[in-house]
TrEMBL record:
Keyword tags: Membrane, Transmembrane, Transmembrane helix
Organism from which the protein derives: Cannabis sativa
Keyword Lipid biosynthesis: no
Transmembrane portions of the chain: 131-149, 170-191, 272-293, 305-322, 334-355, 376-395, 423-441
Protein name: Heparan-alpha-glucosaminide N-acetyltransferase catalytic domain-containing protein
Lineage, uppermost ranks: Eukaryota, Viridiplantae, Streptophyta, Embryophyta, Tracheophyta
Length: 450
């Protein structure tokens, strides 16, 4: 093959011709064929290894992590991606397993931070689900679809409104399948009576219905009880704070007299069926990212984000106020998906205008820093691991620690309100603190990467 020799010597031609020749001559089939000359193998192996091949006519062919970049003498850059799907799949699976590990460790019951200075969990009561496990499932599905459909996507999107949807049709098909699974299961699955044990007493919840979006007899909870077992669900669900359960509502407190039986029951807010519904949220989220990639003008991007954001919000409001599908975070209902995804698109557009269009980046740098070290902030901050470490150094009794003193004396007592004081503590103590820490770590180039 004479052109292989020309490729190495730099006499093949312009950058565009190099790309065309590589596409035609140096595919995987040629690399594996037995009829290829040894010299051609050497050139192709250089490309496979990522070696830089200098061109004598000042054209440059070099490898990047994502593919080949050819730059000609006119300064025109041409990128041709040669994705290594097997390597990408391995990274996706490994990252998913890491998320599952940290999720079970932090939210499975092993860690009692920050309030209790103990650790350990009874395997008969371990919680298998959590927010990181949900993220792991959504990431696995969305990332695999993105990886396997890379070669079949067009590199350019035309001006038609539906073009970006058709270009990423497999992502939307995946999101639609998750939507169908959730909706069909929610409305078609029969939920029978079920029982649970609270301390030493057994309680029975009467159901016998389908398509219920209430607290006790929904299909989301039934699926989790069947898959994981009632003992492995979250024991303190948020609706224990409802008025029907406690006089302290909306805060937690002792159960009121005559409270429904389901107030005592466990429920998994990050369960299997609700996490399948969250795949649609991931699909919409990556769609916002695709808009950022393919549309270069500010107005084009904002038009795409805002139109979809407001459209999803309108759908959510209609579904909720017509009682068709109420907005319910615990069930991760379709209306909740639309509401949160729509709000995310609008908020993202607002931040984009402030930061990218108007240039007000400095006031929001702390958000950027936190995002660069999101896993570290979640583990040490949101899960209270650092606070538990600080609470381990107390004076007299465990409640007399630095963290508790700041929260009580600087915020709650000053404002004479536990709710307001706790909110201000989160905003001005925790978020500010972790923004500063993340900024310092960014300055030192220290990141927690999965």
């Amino acid at each position: 093959m004479e052109d292989a020799k020309k490729l190495e010597e730099g006499t093949l031609g312009s950058g565009k011709e190099l790309v065309k020749e590589y596409q035609k001559q140096y595919s995987k089939d040629i690399v594996t064929t037995t009829n290829t000359h040894s010299h051609d193998h050497e050139v192709v192996n250089k490309i496979e290894r990522g070696d830089v091949i200098e061109q004598k006519d000042q054209n440059e062919l070099k490898m990047t992590e994502g593919g080949i970049v050819v730059q000609n003498v006119e300064g025109e850059a041409i990128t041709m991606r040669v994705p290594k799907i097997n390597d990408a799949v391995k990274k996706i699976i490994l990252r998913t397993l890491k998320l599952l590990f940290w999720g079970i460790l932090l939210q499975g019951g092993y860690s009692h931070a920050p309030s209790d200075l103990i650790y350990g969990v009874d395997m008969k009561q371990i919680r298998w689900c959590g927010i990181l496990q949900r993220i792991a499932l959504v990431y696995l599905v969305v990332a695999l679809i993105e990886t396997f459909t890379t070669k079949g996507r067009p590199t350019a999107i035309d001006s038609r409104p539906v073009s970006i949807f058709t270009a990423y049709r497999w992502q939307w098909i995946g999101g639609f399948i998750s939507f169908l699974i959730y909706m069909i299961t929610t409305f078609a699955l029969y939920v029978p009576d079920w029982s649970f044990i609270d301390e030493t007493e057994r309680y029975t919840v009467k159901c016998g219905m389908r398509g219920h979006f209430g607290t006790a007899c929904n299909a989301v909870g039934y699926v989790d009880r069947q898959v994981w077992g009632v003992n492995h669900l979250y024991s303190q669900p948020v609706w224990i704070r409802l008025k029907a359960c406690t006089l302290s509502s909306p805060s937690g407190g002792p159960l009121r007299e005559g409270a429904p039986i389901w107030c005592r029951a466990p429920f998994e807010p990050e369960g299997l069926l609700s996490s399948i519904s969250a795949i649609l949220s991931g699909t919409i989220g990556i769609h916002y990212g695709h808009i950022l990639v393919h549309f270069k003008g500010h107005s084009e991007r904002l038009k795409q984000w805002m139109s979809m954001g407001f459209g999803l919000l309108i759908i959510a409001i209609i579904l909720h106020f017509t009682d068709a599908i109420p907005i319910n975070k615990q069930l991760y209902s379709f209306s909740y998906v639309c509401f949160t995804a729509g709000a995310a698109g609008i908020v993202f557009s607002g931040l984009y205008i402030l930061i990218d269009v108007w240039g007000f980046r400095t006031p929001f740098l702390f958000l950027e820093w936190i995002g660069m070290n999101a896993m570290l902030v979640f583990v040490l901050g949101a899960q209270g691991i650092l606070a538990a470490f600080v609470n381990g150094w107390y004076y007299g009794t465990p409640d007399k620690s630095l963290v508790n003193w700041i929260q009580e004396h600087v915020f709650i007592n000053v404002w004479h309100s536990e709710r307001l004081g706790s909110l201000l503590y989160v905003i001005f103590a925790e978020i500010t603190f972790w923004g500063i820490v993340a900024g310092i770590l960014h300055k030192l180039r220290i990141y927690w990467k999965l």
